[in-house]
Amino acid sequence: MQTQDHPVVLFDGVCNFCAASVQFIIRRDPQGLFRFAAYQSDAGKSLCAQHGVDAGALDTFALIVDGRALFRSDAALATATRLGGLWRLLAVFRLVPRAVRDAVYRLIARNRYRWFGRRESCMVPDADVRHRFLG
To answer: Of the four, 39, 68, 88, 90, which is 20 to 30 A from 82 by CA?
Structure first.
């Protein structure tokens, strides 16, 4: 599993909000920079073990980039800035203290199933982007 050339988004594969976030990234990443792995997948579990990520922490968005794992709002902001264009402007939120950013993040994460629902099984990517998902 070669990931060093591509940032990898770790996400909860049964969360509707998380799946929508992955689709959001895919639509705004026509160069195919990002790769994706559900926490529940073998690749996701392996990446978690390699980078010291709690594979059971399904409420934590993680981005593995440049050999390290970023979490919660840091991961979201790093993802947005890598999308380029106007999304880079979201970097201004790094001026907000991490504790505040992560408090908002945790509020959404804690309520994501209630507000957005969940699937019975992990999302299945469309054929045209399946190669970007790690098994």
So the answer is: 39
